[in-house]
Amino acid sequence: MLQAEQIRKGFDGNEVLKGISISVNKGEVLAIIGPSGSGKSTFLRCVTQLETVDSGAITLCGETLVKNGPDGKAVYADKATCSRIGLRIGLVFQNFNLFPHFSVMRNITEAPIRVLGKKREEAEATARELLKKMNLADKADAYPYQLSGGQQQRVSIARALAMEPEILFFDEPTSALDPELTGEILKVIRELAAEHMTMVVVTHEMKFAHDVADYVVFMDDGTIVEQGKPEQLFDSSTNERTRAFLARYHDM
């Protein structure tokens, strides 16, 4: 579903990603962990076309988004291919990014109607099913300002799912929430994992990464320090940097 090879990205001469290679198979949950500033969110933004890479190759859902040209620099696919790939993935932001002047229903149905060409009745029926799944069946006519942070984030997940993505990306989906609301979102992601939704989750929630992810990548300073099964990374890592990062989690 995702194959990223030797991804490099810099800003103003500062290399943020230093040759990142990550792969995700259908139905897998990949957790990316690491300290702030390690490049986790930048990697996610590159894969979801919010940033362009300097070099490397990315294949999503069997289609090549970008690869290196003869000069070793990134060459992107044509606009139609990039758009088609974009429609096959979903992204949930850490700060919800809901349209404040749209109701919950319109936030969820706007893109399926305008982008996918779905009939309003079909889009609204799907939205109601998703709201029920998110335990928000009574919030269809509410506006974002009337919702808690956890409710807004669940709406943003429903909005992403309404586009029927083949792979779903989460960029620190609980970082803007207090601990009680964090539990709401992690429960939703756990349920999606149980349904074998392919997901890549950038997270600071170590217990979630340990318990739910099929595979964990630990990043630091723009590189992958260590990667492997959760039990390998969390319980028997021999890498000093990994063990230092996870020390607080183990203490808890």
UniProtKB/TrEMBL annotation:
<dbReference type="InterPro" id="IPR030679">
    <property type="entry name" value="ABC_ATPase_HisP-typ"/>
</dbReference>
<keyword id="KW-0175">Coiled coil</keyword>
<dbReference type="InterPro" id="IPR003593">
    <property type="entry name" value="AAA+_ATPase"/>
</dbReference>
<dbReference type="InterPro" id="IPR003439">
    <property type="entry name" value="ABC_transporter-like_ATP-bd"/>
</dbReference>
<protein>
    <submittedName>
        <fullName>Amino acid ABC transporter ATP-binding protein</fullName>
    </submittedName>
</protein>
<keyword id="KW-0547">Nucleotide-binding</keyword>
<keyword id="KW-0472">Membrane</keyword>
<keyword id="KW-0813">Transport</keyword>
<keyword id="KW-1003">Cell membrane</keyword>
<dbReference type="InterPro" id="IPR027417">
    <property type="entry name" value="P-loop_NTPase"/>
</dbReference>
<keyword id="KW-0067">ATP-binding</keyword>
<feature type="coiled-coil region">
    <location>
        <begin position="113"/>
        <end position="140"/>
    </location>
</feature>
<dbReference type="InterPro" id="IPR050086">
    <property type="entry name" value="MetN_ABC_transporter-like"/>
</dbReference>
<dbReference type="InterPro" id="IPR017871">
    <property type="entry name" value="ABC_transporter-like_CS"/>
</dbReference>
<dbReference type="Pfam" id="PF00005">
    <property type="entry name" value="ABC_tran"/>
</dbReference>
<dbReference type="GO" id="GO:0005524">
    <property type="term" value="F:ATP binding"/>
</dbReference>
<feature type="domain" description="ABC transporter">
    <location>
        <begin position="2"/>
        <end position="246"/>
    </location>
</feature>
